[in-house]
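Encode chain A's predicted structure.
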Amino acid sequence: MKRVLCILFFCSCAPFLNAQTDSVTLASNIRTAADSMLQSFRDQDFIGFVKYNNTNLVAMMGGENEFASYLRQEMDALKGVEFSQMKAGSVIRLITKASPMQCVVEQFSELKINGQPVSSVSHLVGVSSDGGKTWRFADANTASEEEIKSIIPNLSPLIVIPKKQQKSGVDLTTLLKSYRPVY
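Encoded structure for chain A:
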């Protein structure tokens, strides 16, 4: 009898274990894509960077080549600015029931402007149209809510973007010690 109960218990838990694994896999895919996008930006590989941007945003910017050209011009104008760190943080929201899938992921950045650090925590909104295998992002903290909705028209109401936090004269490690999301 005990053996039957144990088998029934494990069988009833199987769907929950699969859901946990799926969430872990999705979060890993999101962070990998976000890190690849941010590394492309740091390396000034703007074509690579654009490939991870939301397709509607890319279209609004005139396509991949035009968007990459625009970014290059903007970066060339930023004299004395070094992007010393850019990395993805935690996936703080994951909506798998929406079509396409949607997420919010933290973005940690440290710039040096004429040698002085400026650190920030901002957020990316990601979408996946292929079941979470690949993700494309839009910066959620540099656009208004209306602009985000024009980029992602079917944005889930469950997607809530925390406020960007930025400090001058503070390195990223120090900022992250006291970081708490603020909505």
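The radius of gyration is 19 Å.
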